[in-house]
Design goal:
With about 230 residues, the chain is mainly alpha-helical. It is built from six helices and two strands.
């Protein structure tokens, strides 16, 4: 029997690639029952830019939402290669794909445990630790961005990067540097007053989002003129 290529995973998950995300998800699932048993009726679930609580939810939501979301993210990572019309390209950056999957699950797990401590009443510094953690995540992503090959789900997907391999590669090299810069801004920005930090961060994110888009367009026009 010949298997339809649409039903074959191009990166073939193995125990080696999945063991870390699975352990993290199981740890989060086990912790959710502990949190549910020990949370008060209302737990903090959102903080403003000053690190002050500005929203509460019931303890069931606080205990079970993040583990469920984390599982959903993991399953989405497993399913994306099946859905992408360019699924054959995933073999070219399979290692990076698995690293991205593991780092996102790890980030969500750490975020869950840290905010869980806040729900238990511990004095945690949300306004400092979370931005710094996001900064580290950006730096890790930036280090691997240039290795992502053309696909429809991951990376800097503009009409021009998706239309030309050279534009894709050069835009992602630039994008990786921008992600690292944003990560450093997030980390060192935690030493600034809250209002100043968030203004700097918002301006940086807007600029960091627009620069690769504009660059990919200009580069595409340059490449097409050469043809």
């Amino acid at each position: 029997m010949i298997l339809n290529s649409n039903y074959i995973n191009p990166i073939k998950p193995t125990l080696k690639t999945e063991i870390i995300p699975i352990i993290l998800i199981l740890l989060g699932g086990a912790a959710s029952f502990y949190f549910y048993a020990n949370f008060p009726d209302k737990v903090p679930t959102h903080w403003n830019y000053k690190g002050e609580v500005d929203a509460y939810s019931g303890k069931a939501f606080g205990a079970f939402f993040f583990p469920a979301l984390n599982l959903g993210i993991y399953l989405l990572f497993l399913g994306i290669p099946y859905l992408d019309p360019r699924k054959s390209r995933y073999q070219e950056f399979a290692k990076v794909y698995h690293i991205f999957k593991a780092i996102f699950v790890l980030f969500m797990t750490l975020l869950y445990f840290y905010t869980g401590l806040a729900g238990l009443g511990y004095p945690v510094s949300i306004g400092v630790v979370i931005p710094a953690a996001v900064g580290i995540l950006f730096i890790v992503i930036g280090n691997y961005t240039a290795k992502i090959k053309s696909n429809w789900f991951m990376g800097i997907r503009t009409p021009w990067t998706l239309s030309n391999e050279e534009v894709w590669n050069k835009t992602h090299r630039l994008g990786g540097k921008i992600f690292i810069l944003l990560g450093l801004i997030m980390i060192f920005g935690t030493f600034l007053p809250g209002e100043i930090f968030w203004k700097v961060f918002i301006i940086s994110v807007i600029g960091g989002s627009l620069i690769p888009i504009i660059y990919s367009y200009l580069l595409y026009r340059k490449v097409e003129k050469k043809k």
